Amino acid sequence: MYKKWNDFYEEHPYWSVWIIVSVSSGVTILIEYIVNHDFIVSGEFLESGFYGILFLTIGLLLLARRRTKNKK
Residue-wise over 36-53: b if at least 16 C-beta within 10 A, else e? Predict the structure, then answer.
């Protein structure tokens, strides 16, 4: 399975970033629901969760861009 993911990442680096972000967002929402038994979008959620995912996405996109640039 790891080899397949590695091959997919080499062929489609930007798609793999969006998959990672989607899965991590889903896991975060699931944990929030399990812990609090409610998923309320409040100011605290937006400050911590949204910016965390935003920085993760930007970092992974820059990493994917760098890897594709070095590959050529």
Answer: eeeeeeeeeeeeeeeeee
- Compute the C-alpha angle 32/33/34, nearest 5°: 95
Report whether 59 contacts 17 (CB < 8 A). Answer: no
Tell me the pTM: 0.61
Closest CA to 17 of 54, 64, 52, 50: 64
- Classify residue 40 as left (phi > 0), alpha (psi -120 to 50) or beta: beta
d(CA 44, CA 66): 33
Beta strands in the chain (DSSP E): none
pLDDT in tens, 58-69: 888 888 888 887
